[in-house]
Amino acid sequence: MRRLNSKSLQNRPPKGPQKGAKRHKKCYVPFVLLCGLAICFPVVAQQRVLKDVFKNDFMIGAALNRRQIFEEDTRGAAIVRTHFNSITPENILKWALVHPDPNRYDFAAPDRFVEFGEKHGMFIVGHTLVWHNQTPRWVFQDEKGNPVDRETLLNRMREHILKVVGRYKGRIKGWDVVNEALNQDGTMRQSPWFKIIGEDYLVKAFQFAHEADPSAQLYYNDYDLELPAKRAGGVELIKKLKAAGVPISGVGLQNHNQMDWPSIADEDATITAFENLGVKIHITELDVDVLPRTTKPGADYAVDVEVTPQLNPYVDRLPDAQQLALAKRYAELFQVYLKHRDAIDRVTFWGVGDGDSWLNNWPMKGRTNYPLLFDRLGRPKPALRAVIMLKSGGLFSAEEPPEFLFEPFVPYCG
Question: What are the two backbone dihedrals, phi and then psi, of residue 258, each rounded to the nearest 5 degrees?
C-alpha cells in the first residue's frame, strides 16, 4: 500500500538565468486565451520522476505486460522509461508461457523484455522459476497422466531452470526462484512440488538457479507475509535455506495491499524480521486495492460472485476523497520503506497504470480498480505526488491536504 507527502513545490525552477545552470530541454503546454485560441509557450520541465527522487534509497520498478514489452502500449512504455529503473515481467517468464510444452520454449517476449531493459539501463528481474500456479500439468505428470517420481520432477526442474536462467546469464540480474511456497498459517503449501519432491525442492531450485548463473541475485517471493503466523513461517523457511547453504540473496514481500491492511506496524515488523536474517528486502508486487473485498487477505481467494454496485462503486472515476485516502496510504507505506532504506534494494509496482492492473479482474472479474500511481490515461495521480513529497516534507494532513496534490504535473520531457 502507499502513503502521501508534500514535496512538489520545491521542483519549481528559480526565476531568471542561473550561473552554470544546466540547460533544460523544453516542452510545450497549451494555454487557452480568452478569445478561444490555443497557443503554446515553452516551459521548463518540472515533473520529478520516481527513480530520481529515490535514487539514493532504492530502485523503483514496474511489472510490464506484453504490450509494454513490445512497446505497442507506447504511453505505458514511455512511463516506464521515465519513472522506473527496474523492470519485472508480469507473465511472460512464467513456466506456462515460456515453456508450454515439454520440447518447446517461447523466448520471443522474454528476449524483447531483456532488450528493453538493457537499452534503458535498467535492473532486470526474472519472474518466476518455480511456482504452483501457471505451471503446465505435464510438468508433474507422465504420458498417462499419473504423477511423476521425485527424480523425474527434479530433472524437469533443473532442465527448465538451466535453460531459462542460462539464456539470460549476466543479463537478468535477479530471479524470483521460488514463489509462494507457504500457506497463510506459515506451514508449507502442499503443492505438487512439495508432494512429489519434498520440502527440499526449494533448496534444489536455488541450487539449480545458482548453477545456471552464479552472479545472479536469487530471491524467495511471497504475499501476505505481514500476517504474524505467515511471517513466522517465512522467517523459519529462510533460516532453513541459509542453514542448508542456499545462495539466497533476498526476500520478496509482494505487498498486494488493501486500504486498511496491513497496518503500518505490521509492515514495519515484517521488514524488520527479514532484515534481521541478513538478507536484502525487495518490495516486489506493490499495489493498493481501493475496492470492497469479500475475502480475507490473500492472492488465492478468487471468488465467483456477481459484481454489484456495492462491490464496484467507482465505475466512472475515483472520487477526490478516495484519491486522497489512496495517496495517504501510499505515503505512509513509503515512509516505512524509507525507514528501512538500508535493507530495501527495490520497490516494484505490479503494473504501470490502473488499467493494467490484475485487480480489475481479481478477486472477482469485471470491476474498475485504481491501485497504482498512474491512471488509465497515464496521468499521474495525487498518490504519485504524495510519494514524491515524502522526501522533502513528510506526510500531509488528510484533514487539510495541500491543494497542489490535485494540480496537473507539468509534462516531463524525457
Answer: -115, 170
- Give the percent of the chain with pLDDT over 70: 81
In 70-208, DSSP assigns E strands to 86-89, 123-131, 174-179
Using an 8 Å Cβ cutoff, are 328 and 4 in contact? yes
Q: Which residues are catalytic?
A: 180, 285
| Cα 6–chain centre separation | 24
Residues whose CB falls within 8 Å of the CB of residue 96, separated by 6 or more in sequence, listed in order: 134, 135, 136
DSSP letters for 282-316? EEEEEEEE-S--SS-S-TT--------TTTS--SS
Give CA–CA dist 201/97, Å, rounded: 22
pLDDT per residue as tens digits for the range 76-124: 999 999 999 999 999 999 999 999 999 999 999 999 999 999 999 999 9
User: Mean pLDDT, to the nearest integer, of 306-326?
Assistant: 94
How many residues comprise the chain? 414
Please report the pLDDT score of residue 412 as a whole number.
Answer: 41
d(CA 337, CA 335): 5
* Cell numbers given for 255: 505487498
Supply the DSSP string of 348-401, one letter for each residue: EES-SBGGG-GGGSSSSSS-----SSB-TTSPBPHHHHHHHHHHHH-PPPSSS-
Residue type, 225: L
Query: Is the distance from CB of 3 to CB of 386 less than 8 angstroms?
Result: yes
Say what the pTM is. 0.86
**Are 164 and 99 in contact, with CB atoms under 8 Å apart?**
yes
Residue 340 confidence (pLDDT) above 50: yes
- The three cell numbers locating residue 403: 491543494
Strand (E) positions, 8-112?
26-32, 38-44, 59-64, 86-89
Q: pLDDT at position 12, please?
A: 32
The end-to-end CA distance of the chain, in Å, is: 28
pLDDT per position as a tens digit, 27-85: 333 323 223 323 232 322 346 899 999 999 999 999 999 999 999 999 999 999 999 99
